[in-house]
Amino acid sequence: MARHTIFSGLRGVGKTVLLTKIEKLIEDSESILYEHIECDRSSKFSKDITIAVKKIVNKLSILAKSKDAIKNTFAILKAFTLTWNPTENTLALGMSGETALGTADTGDLSNDLTELFISVGEIAKKNRKCICFILDEIQDLQKNELSALIRATHRINQLQLPIIIIGAGIPTILRISGEAKSYSERLFNFIEITSLKNDDAVSALVEPAKSQNVNYTKDAFEAVVERTGGYPFFIQEYGQCVWNYISDDVIDIDGVNSSYPEYLSKLDDSFFKVRYNRTTPKEKEFLFAMEKCNSYPCQMSQVASYMNQKPRSISLFRNNLINKGLIYAPSHGEVDFTVPQFDSYLKRVK
């Protein structure tokens, strides 16, 4: 069986684009059924996974040779739904038959999710299908939800059932998954997605232009790659801005320089500001203290020093910023921005 995979990286490196590409590839396969889940701190994972499993089982019900097995899975799904989503009355609609009392209804999410995965996995195996759950922003799962997902995934691996988990999240996912279950590093293949290497960054900028018979001069594309740091989203935004400065089907350094203020303004308004504006004055003070660090990740002691506070007294602001997705903790006592070049943005808005 394929190994479960989680892609990790900063905002703007293309994790969601990669998941979308995987979904497009899966769509062409008759043997794989998939569902996409956007993890959100404000949404219950039990509800999201119920909806995803229900859609999968509905698809399997058309294919399944054994209707009794489908009926049993619906009964288990119904038990899970009534236990974990008791106020969501519409979720149980379409789940025909009785409720499977005593299965997936213990009130322990790890146990109940495992029972649910086993049931749907067995049907998929009998019908020679593979199920793929694609989870974006996986770091936003609550600790008990992530722990339950890892435990259920571990069990279906042991039973060799055809369910695959593919996820994406910011770099902190490796640490928090390890804290949730120590064996997560053996269960998942963690792949780090970073900025593009120089040649790839140049190709990402130059090749689309060539397809429109437009060429970059060497100093022009070198300046774009340097200023964007090779981050795919930044390259895309800069490429759009500089497009208005084409002269005789050529983009030169003058065009790159002329479009630079527009590029920064576009990033500030659409990418950075939306995150910055969600913070309180004290959280902003924490961010500006981080901006003063000479290198990243920052030591919490250093941030506290810039704020003229003790590390313990600023832990609340740290936790709030982590929950809001602006920073993450690479390791104990350290913090870093989840957004590339956020320190440069803070310098501009001081």
Total DSSP E strands: 10
> Average pLDDT value?
92
Percent helix, as a range, is 40-55%
Mind telling me the CATH class of the largest domain?
Alpha Beta
Distance between the termini: 52 Å
Query: Could you list the spans in which at least 5 consecutive residues all have pLDDT below 50?
Result: none
Beta-strand residue fraction:
5-15%
Give a short summary of the structure.
By secondary structure, the chain is α/β, with parallel strands linked by helices. The protein has 15 helices and 10 strands. A 5-stranded parallel β-sheet has the order 2-3-4-1-5, with helices on both faces.
Give an overview of the whole structure.
This protein is of the alpha/beta class. It has 3 domains: 4-192, Rossmann fold; 198-276, Orthogonal Bundle (Helicase, Ruva Protein, domain 3); 281-349, Winged helix-like DNA-binding domain superfamily/Winged helix DNA-binding domain (Arc Repressor Mutant, subunit A), CATH 1.10.10. Helix content is 54%, strand content 12%. It has helices at residues 15-27, 45-63, 67-84, 109-126, 143-158, 173-180, 184-187, 198-210, 218-228, 232-242, 253-276, 281-291, 300-306, 315-323, 342-349, and strands spanning 4-8, 32-38, 130-136, 163-169, 188-192, 215-216, 250-251, 298-299, 327-328, 334-337. The strands form 3 sheets. The protein has a 5-stranded parallel beta sheet, with helices on both faces. A 3-stranded antiparallel beta sheet has the order 8-10-9. It has a two-stranded parallel ribbon with strand order 6-7. Helix 3 (67-84) runs antiparallel to helix 4 (109-126), helix 4 packs parallel to helix 5 and helix 9 runs parallel beside helix 11. The longest helix has 24 residues, at 253-276. The chain is globular, with a radius of gyration of 24 Å. The N and C termini lie far apart (52 Å).
